[in-house]
Amino acid sequence: MTLAAALDALATVGSTAGLDRAAVRDEGARLAAAVAESVPGAATGWLEAVGAPDATFGAFFAAASSARRWRSAPTDLLTGLVGTPHAEPYAAALADVVSAACDLGPAPIDVIARASSTAAVQRAAVHGPVPAAPTELPSAFDLPRVDLSAFDLSSLALPPQPGAGEPGLVPVHGGVPAGTTFVPGEPEEKPAKTLEELLAELDALVGLNRVKAEIRQQTQLLRVERLRTEAGLTAPTLTRHLVFLGNPGTGKTTVARLVAGIYRALGLLSKGHLVEVDRSELVAGYLGQTAVKTSEVVATALGGVLFVDEAYGLAEDQYGAEAVNTLVKDMEDHRDDLVVIVAGYPGPMATFLATNPGLESRFSTTVEFDDYTDIELREIFARAAAKADFEPTPECLARFEELASLQIRDEGFGNGRYARNVLDQAITRHAWRLRDVEQPTVDQLRLILPEDLVPAADDPVPGEPSTSEPESTDEPSPSEPSTSEPESTDEPESTDGPERVVGPDEHEHIEESA
Question: Is the pLDDT confidence value at 172 over 90?
């Protein structure tokens, strides 16, 4: 069902219950926006569905901002229907709107999980007051609050959002005037975190005890150097650039972002932002162009940290060497407002640092990231599940720890990525397990069981027939001779398709674990 059709159905159910049809559509549209705000490309489809294709995306984001509370509580109109025969069909229609909202684009797994929880909350409200849900964890896609004054809210009949000076609603019924330009207010700059807050975040990371000790020691060293300089004392010139050694998924990018903030808190950097790149973003297609490309990247990192992941890739050829030479020069030219962190596997990184005489002298501090233990992976799995509003049972966590203990810890092991991949697969199996449950409870929608961690016998297998009956074959009749060996041939054995190519791990940018 499309979102437009779902909104029409909701309006019909609401009219039957004696509600204003326009108000019902408005509530449903805002709920859909709140569910789909993290879905890529959802704004365009939403504007089409609500009959305002010429409006700007600001209307979509404002609607989403006004209705986020309904992801963990029943909508206003549904609350008014509780106790009447109309509550159940209205809640079911809201659930259809939520489902249609997920189809506005390629919904990430956390959006699907949140949508399932939202639909369950609306359905559960039919049977009485819903217990207060815990405060929803902020999504990595949550947008800053928009300036709702840019929209005409005078035609809205619904009560204002609690705590808001203006009604937190967007007049999607009747449409937004074509050509409306969304002009957000000046974004409020978030106050910079203090050194104590950043170090507390560092300590809160799972594991990484050696990394935490090294970063704290480096922080104290740089703090004292700054104090000596302010006091007029001679201070040694310390190298602030770092080498991060470790396998994938051990939290290198996360720690690099914290280092950027710590250096800013110490007054060593003016901005404290992180720019993450790899070889492809530093090297150009022709000699001579690489130097320009590298310098442009460095310019974007001034005032913060340039994080070069898999830096050993720059030691492969003359193009990489040109990038390294340019990087060394730029590090010297901007030594007062630039920190460079290079990261990668221990062995190849030693080769990389030896490619240029200036590299080793500028990277005197090395931080080693150990692989996570089974217990630490279990904690990462549990935290990731909680962030997606799932709850693994104690038996599920014990089973996960057992599976983690069987993994070979070589350079191909994903560490934190392994834990998140297992969670993604578990969420998929969890959804498949509930395929025959018409109206699952909130607990059923949240609980991950041990059987969700491993493939089940009835799991669908891509590319295989859904029936258990064997495919028919042209077997020889009893009168025909049969042989257990194929005829010999000089031709190579044919295959039904091209050879499978296994690609490298994907490069992650949210919940970083490079």
Answer: no
* Count of C-beta atoms within a 10 Å radius of residue 107: 20
CA distance 508 to 514: 7
DSSP E strands in 360-436: the ranges are 365-369, 391-392
Q: On the CB side of 13, how many CA atoms lie within 13 Å of its CA?
A: 25
Q: Which residues, 6 or more positions from 464, have their beta carbon under 8 angstroms from its beta carbon? A: none
State pLDDT tens for residues 149-171: 444 434 433 334 333 333 334 44
Q: Residue 306 and residue 327: Cα distance in Å, rounded? A: 10
pLDDT at residue 510 tops 70: no
- Which pTM value belongs to this model? 0.54
More confident site: 362 or 96? 96
Q: In this model, does residue 404 exceed pLDDT 50?
A: yes
Give the span between the Cα atoms of 132 and 72, in whole angstroms. 8
CA within 13 Å, CB half, 417: 21
**Count of Cβ atoms closer than 10 Å to residue 469 Cβ:** 6
Taking the C-alpha atoms of residue 169 and residue 161, their distance in angstroms, rounded to an integer, is 8
Give the contacts of 172 (CB within 8 A, at least 6 positions apart): 25, 26, 29, 30, 50, 51, 52, 59, 63
How far apart are alpha carbons 240 and 217 in whole angstroms?
A: 12
Across the chain, what does the average pLDDT equal? 77
From the list 230, 202, 234, 233, the residue with the least C-alpha distance to 218 is 202
The length of the chain, given as a count of residues: 514
CA geometry: angle 426, 432, 433, nearest 5 deg: 85
Q: How far apart are CA 380 and CA 383, in angstroms?
A: 5
